[in-house]
Design goal:
The chain has about 725 residues and is of the alpha+beta class. Helices cover about 30% and strands about 25% of the residues.
Amino acid sequence: MIMNRRDFLKVSAGTSGSLMLSLSLPGCSGVQTGFQPDTGEWKPDAWLELTRDDEIFFTLARVEMGQGTYTGLTTLIAEELEVAPEAITPKFAPAAPEYRNPLYKLQLTGGSTSVATSWEPLRVAGASARQMLVMAAARVWRVEAADCSVHDGHVVHPNGIDSMRFGELVELASNEVIRGDVRLKPRSEWKYIGMRGGRLDAEAKSTGTAEYGIDIELPGMLYAVVTRAPRFGGRARSFNAEEVRVMPGVVDVIEIERGVAVVADKYWRARKAQAKLSVEWDFSEALALSTTEVFETYRKAADEDPGESERSEGDFDEAVKSAPTVLEAEYAQPYLAHATLEPMNATAWYREDSLEIWAPTQAPDLGQIAAARATDLSPDDVTINTTFLGGGFGRRLTQDFIEEAAAVSYRTGKPVKVIWSREEDTRHDLYRPAMLHRMRASLSGGELTGWHHQVVGPQILDWYVRNAAPAQYPWAPKFMYDSLGSMGLMLEGVATPKDMSAIEGAVDYPYAVSNIEIRHTHTDPGVPITWWRSVGFSHNGFAVETFMDELAHEAGEDPYQFRRRLLASEPRHLEVLDRAARLADWDQPVPKGRGRGIALFRSFGTFVAQVVEAGIEDGAIRVHRVSAAVDCGQVVNPRIVEDQIEGGILFGLTAALYGEITLQDGEVQQSNFHDYRLMRHFERPDVTVDIVDSEAAPTGVGEPGVPPVIPALGNALFALTGERQRSLPLKARG
């Protein structure tokens, strides 16, 4: 197609509205594209839209909960499109198959996978748009496309003077066809990737204009609060509905699957009425156990069942027989809540044959399943509008809050916002599982000759598959949902992915040893669980790296040098270990009254080593300094990497110092930040993050800062006090 400038201007001026350039990417074949004559628009596809008004929209398929996807993924598009990231407007994706995470086959944000799974597809999207725009301009100018360039939203003529805006070219560009592979910019030409750019969501969050789920307001909206059974598995037997209904502003009192909802015209009226609600509970199928009984169950299971072998090399039993020294240890970690600063909430509006949801969810497609369960609708009838998330940490991967909002709106026929209180959020969370670890190792002449790790506890998929399996088959009728979940568990590791939540990080043991045995004893006491920031890596990291410190002490060797010697064939592990030790001045004496501990862990493909310097002051543990080295492959934005590693460190320290959910007669004992503490600002240590300059494929950064800091702190306390702590949270002793 050859077009002179006069014809080009006729075409550009002859359509109404905005014109959009639509790109189809691999895995998005379900998106229909085509020019819309009635509107003058190209139907947007999964990722990128360019309009005649020079607007650039990027559909963000991963949610933003503080981890930086809003900025990082937009940067990938911007780099290849040759515009500043600030020139692109991100918008959150609806629930649709095109936006599924390719690793999980579900539309979820988790596992620190956002950049890793988007690295190539989004760059291809931006590069394809750039190439199509250049081809269109070259036809207008009758020049070679290879001689044109792109700069700041313009295609520039080979003469370096003339140019055309993207908006002038979108309709013509949409007719171009790229044959062969699109050219991605080499690293040497990058302007934005690898640079310390600002966050695109910073202004909106600083000015209060960013819309979180809890901010949603709709015409005629009602508010609902839910009273849930104090023991998991309890059901409402009776309640004083009529007495509560006559209170000011109360619209209805409704029993739903998980409890009793009070619906009112204002939130605080709903809360006031809730205080008058009296529910008689049926606890015939409810939990009645205590935390002590949970660990008694674990120990009994470990004694009776050695578990499934997850990794076996050499002959551990023979190594033990021939070793002069065998060390054994048991480590225990409690249930942990998520404590997101924005409590669980969702807004739902049921209208006869459809339901619209506004929610801070990490998994919109699972939200569709949850809403469909609570109504007479199919998932296709449910629209999910994802908002900013005030913290996620895996909690918002489970959609109970959406299910509650859908159920109440379905019963009232009105738009309803359900908000959990902090107490409800703490006592009805789905927790990071409590876990038990039994470790054995053999030493001969100071050399590690055998390693045995028995992980004892539940698997998260057992709890998550309820909605995850139907989300993979949204066409299935609802009566099949539970069957799909059961089938998913039966075929785990065969037709469905293996659940690694209990053993991740344990099976990846990197140290050189000839005889390894790693087993998982699966036992589940029935306490609801879900994903938590760094999941299994968090509890396995504590067990593995604390035990490694114990082995170094037994061998009479410096814990840094002991690890270093066993990592001779692991260059990326070794690199971060050495960097962290240098940052922390490991070879220099530690200040009086302090101890120094080191730990190393690889999670989500990212290598992190940390050195913690801590002391005990006024009867409390005080963390003074954390030195961290990280290798996460190619870095998109170093500032965000630093923020995320530091955030993970503070999250992990909070768990190490204060994190503990306890049960008594089946009831959670903690309720708010006074008894489930977060680290305060004045307690924050000095944190230094050193990032390895790497050209390897990018890996995750949202979670890998958590696992090493917990054992590093425990190891520092041992160095200070000489007392080893094998259970969490850590205590000020010695």
